[in-house]
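Quick one: sequence plus coenzyme A SMILES, need structure tokens.
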Amino acid sequence: MRRARIRATLAFVTIRPFEIADEPALVHLWNRCGLTRPWNDPHKDIARKLAVRPDLLLIAAEGSEVVGSVMVGYDGHRGWINYLAVSPEFRMRGLGRALMAEAEARLLREGCPKVNLQVRANNEGVVAFYQRLGYAIEEMVSMGKRLIIDAPRPD
Ligand SMILES: CC(C)(COP(=O)(O)OP(=O)(O)OC[C@H]1O[C@@H](n2cnc3c(N)ncnc32)[C@H](O)[C@@H]1OP(=O)(O)O)[C@@H](O)C(=O)NCCC(=O)NCCS
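Reply:
Sure thing.
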């Protein structure tokens, strides 16, 4: 019953690869969902993704409105998830789950054996979301090193 209701509310939402006309709406969605940071230019992130597997930048659209997104990566060893976002008005209806299912299906088709993702330490609600989808917390230290500076980081 609940699943049927979810399908009905999402009936007009399509998950498809990003198209260039989607860019302003996609960046707007990421801003609204708190996924952007001043030192990380989202337009440059889109341009970089379009240079490497553009088919793996997916959006959820209702008509011309962008209501969700996921950026998927596969490096030949692990799959990666970035920029998973659902517009606040569309949350808790199964769209985040549907975006992740599409991401996983595409990774599986590539033969990808495992998906990794990072959650910002202050984003606790999203951990529960991923756990509902079968993801487990792994005891690791996440490390990174910036190679290209988009904008200076505030002190
Ligand atoms: C995380 C996010 C994508 C979830 O999208 P959503 O469409 O609301 O998720 P769904 O409706 O598909 O939820 C799937 C399941 O997770 C649960 N869930 C979703 N958000 C949850 C939350 N904040 N806390 C606990 N459970 C949650 C749902 O109850 C549902 O459970 P079910 O197994 O009973 O169906 C959305 O909250 C979001 O865009 N957050 C801001 C951006 C963000 O933090 N992205 C992740 C970066 S790592």
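The domain at 2-132 is CATH 3.40.630.30 (Aminopeptidase). The chain has one domain: 2-132.
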